[in-house]
Amino acid sequence: MEGEIVNRVANSKLLVFDLEDYYPTGRRIVFDIKDWLYEGLVLREKMFREYAAAHDWRQYQDSYVALTCSADAIIPGWTFMLLTMHLQPYAKKVVVGELEQLETAVFQDIIGQLDIEMYRDQSVIIKGCGNKPIPPNAYILLSQKLRPVAKSIMYGEACSSVPLYKRK
Questions:
Q1: If you ran DSSP here, which 8-state letter would residue 14 be given?
Q2: Would you tell me how many other CB atoms lie within 10 Å of the CB of residue 160?
Q3: Helix count (H) and strand count (E) of the chain?
Q4: What is the CA radius of gyration of the chain?
Q5: What pLDDT, in 10s, does the model give residues 43-60?
Q6: Distance between CA atoms of 22 and 113, rounded to whole angstroms?
Q7: Which of 41, 97, 141, 165 is found 20 to 30 A from 77 (Cα to Cα)?
């Protein structure tokens, strides 16, 4: 048929990998300890432990938590470990840092557990644009995971992808 429109993208053998398909549900929370510091600057162990003991940790059930201190204070190494001991029965994941470090750590776990055998000797497009906050490091981790098995790796959309790797 002359003039028939053919969707070559739909008919291609390209496999699309969308990290949004793996985005886990759960609240993301930044827990800033600055308000638990004496005069906002000094960590006093006894006072800090009292705050931790009195805090309702159940509110972090099934959440992802980033522990941080936005005050310019010297924080002992045990501080975030103590908070993690309280959070661990409730939170899905706890990291020290901001939201980007949290999302990276979450995706590091997810990508580490992926079975990528279906991508062996295939042309893969890692989908780019989306609506969920996928951290840039997740794309790096996924690229490293796929490179040993994929025939080729591209980034973007099937209609406008950027070639990244092609096995020789």
A1: P
A2: 8
A3: 5, 7
A4: 22
A5: 999 999 999 999 999 999
A6: 11
A7: 141
